[in-house]
Write a structure and sequence with these properties.
Strand 3 and strand 4 form a beta hairpin. The protein starts with a helix and ends with a helix. The longest helix is centred in the middle third of the chain and has 35 residues. With 246 residues, it is α+β, with helices and mostly antiparallel strands. The chain has 2 domains: 213 residues, no CATH class; 31 residues, no CATH class. Helix 2 crosses helix 3. The strands form 2 sheets. Strands 1-2-5-4-3 form a 5-stranded mixed sheet. A two-stranded antiparallel sheet has the order 6-7. The chain has 8 helices and 7 strands, in the order H-H-H-E-H-E-H-E-E-E-E-H-E-H-H.
């Protein structure tokens, strides 16, 4: 995919427009463009940065891109950093049996802080250097979200297609990092961009990449649990953010 990422903007735009012509009415050119950058950026976190043992691709976008279980496009990419690799296993695990609620909260606060520091000190500098080595230093940016310091925002090299995105979709990719999710069961899965489905020969190398994804069955039961909790939510209790997605 690096060849497409390095191609002149006009060449990429033409590829995305032609891909939309093949995949219509399901895919608009601007969506195909954004999907390409999702598929280009995501594997780099696992392979180039050697975060594979620590990262899990999860959530609704993983059901779409890694498992093809749902038809959806999301600008949010859910990822989970391993608690163990952040130093919170065994006697530091917030879910250790027998600890008090106060101690669990203290460990969770420390875990969240450790995740934030790992993103700031390790992940972000690596991404900046790696992305720049492929697509150059200009025309894009990657930064920590001003509201959530565990979210990295990649504003990809935009073409004229970005102006045709719906108001609800930004020309940027949100890499939302969590630290409290379980990482079992997980497996290696292939992802590939919509453009490669339409024109696989446009990609000089293999158009698919490997990522480590949370098993779809686990994601299904997590979603089912959210729905169950929402069904039984007291009328005077606020709607949870995750439930609002449904």
């Amino acid at each position: 995919m690096d060849r497409i990422a390095q191609a002149p903007q006009e060449e990429r735009t033409d590829l995305f427009r032609r891909s939309a012509g093949v995949l219509r009415p399901e895919r608009a050119p601007a969506i195909i463009e954004k999907d390409f950058w999702v598929c280009w950026a995501l594997p780099r976190l696992f392979d180039v940065l050697q975060f594979r043992p620590q990262l899990i691709f999860k959530g609704g976008t993983s059901l779409s891109k890694a498992y093809h279980a749902v038809e959806r496009f999301s600008e949010d990419v859910d990822l989970s950093l391993s608690r163990r690799d952040l130093g919170f296993a065994d006697d530091r695990d917030p879910e250790q049996p027998g600890i008090s609620g106060k101690e669990a909260r203290r460990r969770i606060e420390a875990l969240v802080e450790a995740c934030q520091q790992a993103i700031l000190d390790r992940l972000l500098p690596c991404l900046l250097a790696d992305f720049a080595s492929v697509i150059g230093p200009r025309g894009w940016r990657i930064e920590i979200d001003a509201v959530d310091s565990r979210t990295v925002i990649f504003t990809y090299p935009r073409s004229e297609l970005a102006g045709t995105l719906p108001e609800t979709i930004r020309p940027a990719i949100r890499l939302e990092m969590g630290e409290r999710s379980d990482d079992w069961p997980a497996e290696e899965r292939k992802i590939r961009p919509y453009a490669a489905e339409a024109f696989p020969t446009a990609f000089t190398a293999a158009p698919s990449c490997q990522v480590r994804a949370l098993d779809a069955r686990r994601t299904f039961w997590e979603k089912a649990t959210i729905l169950h909790a929402e069904y039984h939510r007291p009328a005077d209790k606020a709607l949870e953010r995750d439930a609002a997605v449904f």
